[in-house]
Amino acid sequence: KLTDLLQQYATSFRDPMMLQPPEWFKAFIYCEAFLQLPFFPIAAYAFLKGGCRWIRTPAIIYSTHVATTLFAILAHILFHDFSKSEHVGPQTLRERLVLLSIYLPYLLIPLLILFTMLCNPHYKHVEKRKRK
């Protein structure tokens, strides 16, 4: 049933990357599986507990990594010639924008995390140096 759901999604939104991912997209999937997914429970703990300033650096690394990968994916959606794909891809600008809108939240959330870590005074850690 999950395979049918994936097929239905890929057909409805014209997302051939889900059915036949390019090699660079597979690399992003492996990064997500082995780097990003383990980060989620750690980040959830830190954000739910509150007051955990140690999450700042890992959150900055996570958010910049995800944002970087999403820029490549969004550029591929906007500029790639999908007419040569085995599976149907977006052909019109409207279809590309619909597919783009599906991936866009995966960029916005990490950017919000990055903005929070960089601008929120709670996460700005000022080290006090000891005077001799």
UniProtKB/TrEMBL annotation:
Keyword list, A-Z: Endoplasmic reticulum, Membrane, Transmembrane, Transmembrane helix
GO cellular component: rough endoplasmic reticulum membrane
Membrane topology note: Multi-pass membrane protein
KW Zinc-finger (keyword) present: no
Locations listed in the record: Rough endoplasmic reticulum membrane
Record's keyword annotation contains Membrane: yes
Bilayer-crossing regions: 27-48, 60-79, 99-123
Alphabetical list of Pfam families matching this protein: EBP
InterPro entries referenced in this protein's UniProt entry, alphabetically: EXPERA (IPR033118), Sigma-2_receptor-like (IPR051987), Sigma2_recept (IPR016964)
Domain annotation EXPERA: ranges: 1-114
Entry similarity comment: Belongs to the TMEM97/sigma-2 receptor family.
Stored PANTHER family: SIGMA INTRACELLULAR RECEPTOR 2 (PTHR31204:SF1)
Name of the protein described by the UniProt record: Sigma intracellular receptor 2
Gene: Tmem97
